[in-house]
C-alpha cells in the first residue's frame, strides 16, 4: 500500500507488534491497530495524512472551526472553552475524517466495495466516500437508525441492511454476512487515523499551544485513541509541548468506556441492555474500548457518565451559547459540567469540547426534549 | 454605527443615493441598499468584513470548502466544476453569512430583538445568531417550513410565528406585526453583504483567479446581488482581473428572477401560484429581485429555470459525485446541465456552483424522489 513518508506502518495497541497497512486487526493478538508515524517527518498537521495525493479520497473533510464559547467558560469557572465543530464535515459528522482514509485504504487494496456496521452517521459517511471513490458500499444499521442517515445512504447510492433491533444486532448481521466487501468497521486503523488528524488540526488551530483538557463524546473509542496518538505525535515531533488530558463522556445508560476509566478497570464491560436517547453513542461493546481506556490513562484523563436528561438540556444550552450541537455533542457539554462539579478543572484551564455531529442532524431529539419541558 | 475602514456607507441599487448604515431601504426611493466599499482599503477577503472585532457577532461562519467535482466537469464538457459548499456553515446554510452581519448591525443600533419572515433556514440562522449575541429573535415562517428549521429555532430559544399558508402569507404576517423588533428581513443590506464576503472568499480559494461562471440557486436574489458586488470589488481592489458571469437558477414553478433575466425584463414579475418542492426557493416576490436582475446583466449572466424533477435528480447525482447537496443545491446542478445543453459554456470554462443548504437538511426531499423512482 502506497503511504506517505510519515507512515512507518501499523502497530498494535495491545502487544506493540508491527503490522502491514493492509490488515484490520493485529495478526498476533487480534487487538486494535494504529498508524505508526515517523515524528521526524511530521512538521505540520497536513503531514500526518497517510496517503499521497494520487491515492487520496476526499470531499474536503476537516478544517473545521474551533468556536470559542466564553459564556460556558464563565459558567464552568475556567479560562476558556472552545468547541471543535466536527458537525461541519461533508456529511455532518466526525466520521468523515475516518472514512476518507479507510475508503482510500480499501481502494488502494483493490476493493470495489466497502462494508461496515453503524449506528447511522458512519453508514452515511461510508456511502458518501465510497461514491466519491466510485466504488460500492454496504451499511448494516439497526432499525432505530435515524431516517436522515438511512435516506442519505440511499441518496449516495449505498446499499443498506436495516437490521431489526439495536446496534448489537447490526454488528452481528455484519459479522455473519457472506457478502464480499472490504471491512471498514469500527476499530479500523485508518478510521482511528482520522482522529489523529483531528488532534493535529486542533493543535494547529491553537498555534500549537495544547489545551489542558479535551472532552469527547465516546462511542467505539476510536476518536479517543486517535486523539491521544495525535497529541503524543505532536509532542514527539516538537510541534507541541504537552498532551491534554482526555475525558471520554458517555450517556450513563451506555457508558462502557467511561465507567471502566472511572473505575480504574483495564477493559470495558459490555453493556447488556443499553438504552440511551443518544443513538450514535449507544455502543454497548466498543471496538476500540480497551485501547481507548489505555489512551485516557496515558493522558491522565478520565471517564464521565451523564444522564440523558442532562445531555439533552446541555445540548439545548450549548445551542444558545455557541455552535449548533445535538444530543451527541451535548454529551460533551453535560460531561464538562459534571467534571466541573467534581472540581476537575483549575481556574486557568483551557478546555476543548468535540462536537462529533451537526446539531441539525439531531433536531428531533432536541425538539422532543423541549416538548417534555412543556415548551 | 461602528464599521471598518473598508465601509464608506450604504448606496442604493436603484437610484445610487448614499445612505447611513443604520437604514434598511433607500430613504429616497425605497429600493434595496448595498454596502459601499472603499476598494483601496480591501487587500484580502477578510478586509470586507464590515464590523470591527468588538462589534462582530460570529459562530465562525464562512471558510467553507470549494470542492472539485471532476466527474461533473466531464459530463458538462468544461474545464472544471467546483461546488462552494455553503452547507458547511454553522446552521447548515449560506444564510449564516448574512445573519452574522445583520444581527451585528442590529446590536450596534441597540436592538434587543430581531425579526424576519423566512422559508425556514433564515429563521433558524437568525435565532442562532441572536442567541449568540444574547438578544431575542422572532421568525415568521409558513406552515410548510420544514420541521428541522422550526425545531432549531426553538432550540436556539427563538420565538416563532408559524403562519398558515405559504411564504407570502408569512411575509404578510411579518409586515402587519406590531411587535417590537429590528427587521433583518430579506433584502437587508448586511444580509447582502454576507454574499459579498462569499464572493471574495471564493476568489481567494482560487488564488484570485476568477472562474468563468458562477451558478447560484436564487430565492430573494440577495446572494446574486452580493456576489456581483464582491466580484466587482475584487476587480476594483486589484485582487482579481475579471467578474464571472452569474447565472441565477430557479425551479420553473417559481422563477421570477430567472424568467425576467432570460426575457430581458428589468423587473421580476411576482408569481401568483408558486408551487415547487424546493421550499427555500419558493419565493414568489423576491425582495432583491430587481437588483439581482441588474447584477446578472452587469456580469453578462442569465437566468435558468428548471423543473422540480430535474432538480431532485440533479441533487441525487450531485451527492454521488461531490459534496452532499439537497434540493436547493440540486437547482444549481440542474441549472448548469440546462445551460450546458444550450451551449452556454466553452470547453475551457471553469464553473463554480453554490450549494446554499446542507444536503442532510433536505434528506426527506431526496429520499422521496428515490421513492418516486421505485428505489
TrEMBL record, chains A, B:
InterPro entries on file: Ser/Thr_Dehydratase, TrpB-like_PALP, TrpB-like_PALP_sf
Domain Tryptophan synthase beta chain-like PALP per the UniProt entry, residue ranges: 58-355
UniProt cofactor(s): pyridoxal 5'-phosphate
SUPFAM superfamilies referenced in this protein's UniProt entry, alphabetically: Tryptophan synthase beta subunit-like PLP-dependent enzymes (SSF53686)
Keyword Lyase: yes
Pfam assignment, any one: PALP
UniProt keyword annotations, A-Z: Lyase, Pyridoxal phosphate
Keyword Lyase: yes
PANTHER family per the UniProt record, alphabetical: L-THREONINE DEHYDRATASE CATABOLIC TDCB, THREONINE DEHYDRATASE, MITOCHONDRIAL-RELATED
Protein name per its UniProtKB record: Pyridoxal-phosphate dependent enzyme
Organism encoding this protein: Haloarcula onubensis
Amino acid at each position: 500500500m502506497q503511504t506517505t513518508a510519515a507512515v512507518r506502518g501499523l502497530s498494535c495497541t495491545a502487544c506493540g507488534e508491527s503490522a502491514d497497512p493492509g490488515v484490520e486487526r493485529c495478526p498476533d493478538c487480534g487487538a486494535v491497530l494504529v498508524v505508526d508515524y515517523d515524528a521526524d517527518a511530521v512538521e505540520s498537521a497536513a503531514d500526518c495524512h497517510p496517503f499521497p495525493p494520487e491515492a487520496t479520497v476526499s470531499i474536503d473533510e476537516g478544517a473545521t472551526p474551533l468556536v470559542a464559547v466564553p459564556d460556558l467558560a464563565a459558567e464552568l469557572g475556567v479560562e476558556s472553552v472552545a468547541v471543535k465543530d466536527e458537525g461541519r464535515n461533508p456529511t455532518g459528522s466526525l466520521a468523515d475524517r475516518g472514512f476518507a482514509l479507510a475508503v482510500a485504504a480499501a481502494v488502494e487494496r483493490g476493493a470495489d466495495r466497502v462494508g461496515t456496521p453503524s449506528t447511522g452517521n458512519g453508514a452515511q459517511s461510508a456511502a458518501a466516500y465510497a461514491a466519491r471513490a466510485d466504488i460500492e458500499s454496504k451499511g448494516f444499521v439497526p432499525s432505530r437508525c435515524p431516517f436522515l442517515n438511512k435516506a442519505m445512504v440511499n441518496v449516495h447510492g449505498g446499499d443498506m441492511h436495516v437490521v431489526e433491533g439495536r446496534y448489537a444486532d447490526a454488528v452481528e448481521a455484519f459479522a455473519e454476512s457472506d457478502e464480499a466487501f472490504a471491512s471498514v468497521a469500527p476499530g479500523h486503523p485508518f478510521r482511528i487515523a482520522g482522529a489523529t488528524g483531528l488532534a493535529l488540526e486542533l493543535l494547529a488551530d491553537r498555534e500549537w499551544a495544547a489545551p489542558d483538557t479535551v472532552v469527547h463524546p465516546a462511542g467505539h473509542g476510536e476518536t479517543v485513541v486517535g486523539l491521544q496518538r495525535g497529541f503524543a505525535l505532536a509532542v514527539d515531533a516538537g510541534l507541541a509541548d504537552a498532551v491534554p488530558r482526555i475525558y471520554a463522556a458517555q450517556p450513563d445508560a451506555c457508558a462502557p468506556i467511561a465507567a471502566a476509566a472511572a473505575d480504574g478497570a483495564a477493559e470495558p464491560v459490555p453493556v447488556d441492555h443499553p438504552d440511551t436517547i443518544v443513538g450514535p453513542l449507544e455502543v454497548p461493546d466498543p471496538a476500540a474500548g480497551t485501547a481507548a481506556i489505555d489512551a485516557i490513562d496515558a493522558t491522565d484523563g478520565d471517564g464521565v457518565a451523564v444522564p440523558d436528561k442532562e445531555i439533552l438540556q446541555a445540548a439545548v444550552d450549548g445551542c444558545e451559547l455557541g455552535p449548533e450541537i445535538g444530543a451527541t455533542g451535548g454529551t460533551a457539554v453535560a460531561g464538562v459540567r459534571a467534571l466541573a462539579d467534581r472540581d476537575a478543572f483549575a481556574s486557568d484551564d483551557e478546555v476543548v469540547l468535540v462536537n462529533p455531529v451537526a446539531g441539525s442532524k439531531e433536531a428531533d431529539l432536541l425538539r422532543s426534549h423541549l416538548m417534555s419541558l412543556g415548551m
